[in-house]
User: Fold these one by one.
Assistant:
Number 1:
Amino acid sequence: MLVARVLITALVLAAAPRASAQAIDPKALVGAWRLVSWETTQADGTVRKSPMSVGSLMYSDSGRMCGVLMDPTRKTPSRPPTDDEIRAAYNGIVAYCGTYEVDSKAGFVVHHVDLEKSPANIGINRKRWFTLEGNRLSLKIDAAELPATQKESRLVWERVR
């Protein structure tokens, strides 16, 4: 009888919903963050560092966010710039702002884009799975947003003091 009770208790506990290990106060994201790294794992398993190696990310306590990343090796365009230089400058930066919502139990944040360098991206939602350890924030781009050639894309940020 005791064995049966122990087994039933174990089964009930195993089936019970649990709070995520990442469950945090959403305000823990508030502040300024500096990009440490952006790495993408390709479908074949190779890992590539993004040339966008400089960046800032900010979350406000009013529910707004803004992120800017750039390739620091972008060349200064000539005056006037050529079409190739304009294209390179445009492709060498990621920039968007909007509102955000945190689901701390599930471990993700959604960026609701209302300002972006490309008008085609205004109004989209960008889901980022997060882990927060000390002064490091890791944001993994949701798989639904990745091209078929990529398996994972993760940005690591460090809190700016």
Note: The chain has one domain: 17-159.
Number 2:
Amino acid sequence: MTDTARIDTAQVDTALINTDRLMGLWATPPADDVAALAAIRALYTDPVQINGATMTALDLLARVRGMQRSYSGLRHELLERVDAPGMLVVAFRLRGTHTGPLATPFGELAPTGRPFEVRVIDVLTLTDGRISAVTMVADELGQLAGLGALRPAWPPTSP
């Protein structure tokens, strides 16, 4: 196979990933778990690697449902999309309102009712037109600060 043929095949693979469909799965997934699992399996391999951890479609469904419990009015704004052979990179802004308990590395954050915005970059590895690995980087610290979960240490308080 020539390099040109490899690139053409990879471009077809990335073209199969519709970013509106991908982001819509996380913002407004089907209410029925069977339909939601089918939507996940249409986009992701089962299992899939997420930041080095192996996750099944059921694990992803739990994450999707967790987002739905924590936030309302979720919407994505695509900032950049870069297609490369066997890979797709998307940078986006995720916005919504924090209306349910949110699991964080610092413990559970009770609903604040505050709007939030977080910038995310996903590097997606594609196998046979589906996402087989994700490296995700998000400004979670900025998001938690915006929700009032963290207090800045600067300026220092006077004694």
Note: The domain at 3-146 is CATH 3.10.450.50 (Nuclear Transport Factor 2; Chain: A,).
